[in-house]
Amino acid sequence: MLLIDTSVWITVFRDRSGQVRQQLENVIAHREVFIT
To answer: Alpha helices of the chain — where are they, by DSSP H?
Structure first.
């Protein structure tokens, strides 16, 4: 299980290029995620 801080999600939403979202998707692929 991965623990992902809210600040990471804010960075994803602010990223207009989509690169951060793609990197995060690769990290969390096929894993349980807990958002704090």
So the answer is: 6-14, 19-28
Given the DSSP bridges, would you call strands 2-4 and 33-35 parallel, antiparallel or unpaired? Answer: parallel
Q: Residue 13 belongs to what domain range? A: 2-35
The model's pTM: 0.65
- Per-residue pLDDT 10s for the chain (36 aa) are 888 888 988 999 999 999 999 999 998 898 888 877
Q: How many domains does the chain fold into?
A: 1
Q: How far is CA 36 from CA 1, 17, 24, 29, in A?
A: 13, 24, 15, 18
- CA–CA separation, 32 vs 36, rounded Å? 13
